[in-house]
Write a structure and sequence with these properties.
Elements (H helix, E strand, L loop, with lengths): L5 E2 L8 E2 L2 E5 L4 E3 H7 L7 E2 L6 E2 L5 E5 L4 H6 L6 H115 L7 E2 L7 H6 L3 H9 L7 E2 L21
Antiparallel strand pairs: 1-2, 3-4, 3-7, 5-6, 8-9
The protein binds zinc ion (2 copies).
One zinc ion binds next to strand 4 and helix 1.
Length: about 260
């Protein structure tokens, strides 16, 4: 659109005017289509579609051509006095100035509306951005808490695993002690039997049972330990009669680990 171009003043049209147009005494201009439609309904009672001014006089609405022929230009003002020609030209220029001024106001209003809309959008997006930032901050804080919680849980799990390892070691130690005591007790019993002779009817075999193990471990010396082992309630000493296990005259194989 060039500065010299006029725009159809019909609100929904705003077409650039460049040939046959309609102009009104209230200084409005319309394209061929809009003017023909608006000014043919009731030619005697026209009103301006732009400003609603009644246009009932003969020259209130005129159809003109923006590209007049050379012949028209030569003849349209021919014969008129210079002051009349000047007056006509002045009015025509006023019309054009009004159109340009009106278009400038329209553009300024549009620009103001766009700026207002832009301002509203900026406010909206700033607010949305602030809200998002706040949410992100909240989420970060939550993430930090979760991380800390996870670290605590991991640390507790490691501590528990460490405690478990210690318990296992203690258990293995106790198992070692238990085996050692069992061996000692068995050796002691064997030597006693060898000293006392296998033919004595009171010779006994015994088996160390788990019920007296803790008692045996906690006994402060070997004698007490032996007593503790002798007090075994879960197991008993079983007398062995010579020859009863096989009857071939040889020393019977001791029966270890027999339960009651
Ligand atoms: Zn139009
Ligand atoms: Zn008008």
């Amino acid at each position: 659109m060039a500065d010299a171009d006029l725009i159809c003043n019909f609100k929904k049209c705003r077409k650039i005017l460049n040939s046959s147009i309609w102009v009104t005494s209230c200084s409005h201009a319309f394209c061929e289509e809009d003017g023909s439609r608006e000014f043919s309904r009731d030619p005697e009672n026209n009103t301006c579609p732009a400003c609603s001014t009644p246009l009932t006089a003969k020259y209130d609405v005129v159809k003109t051509n923006l590209n007049p022929t050379e012949q028209f230009k030569s003849m349209v003002l021919a014969g008129l006095r210079p002051e009349t020609i000047h007056d006509i030209a002045t009015r025509a220029i006023s019309f054009w100035c009004y159109q340009v001024h009106q278009e400038r106001i329209y553009q300024e209003n549009s620009a103001a509306k766009i700026r207002e809309r832009q301002h509203q959008l900026e406010e909206f997006y700033e607010s949305a951005l602030a809200q998002l930032k706040s949410e992100v901050t909240g989420l970060k804080r939550q993430l930090e808490c979760t991380k800390k919680e996870l670290e605590n849980q991991t640390r507790r799990a490691e501590e528990t695993a460490e405690q478990l390892r210690e318990k296992i070691q203690q258990y293995q130690k106790l198992q070692g002690v238990c085996s050692s005591l069992r061996r000692t007790a068995l050796a002691s019993s064997l030597s006693e039997r060898q000293r006392g002779g296998v033919n004595q009817p009171n010779a006994k075999e015994f088996v160390l049972g788990p019920k007296t193990l803790s008692e045996a471990i906690e006994a402060p010396n070997a004698a007490q330990r032996q007593t503790a082992l002798s007090n075994n309630q879960g197991f008993n000493f079983q007398p062995v009669t010579p020859g009863s296990a096989g009857g071939n005259g040889r020393r019977p194989t001791p029966i270890w680990g027999q339960r009651k």
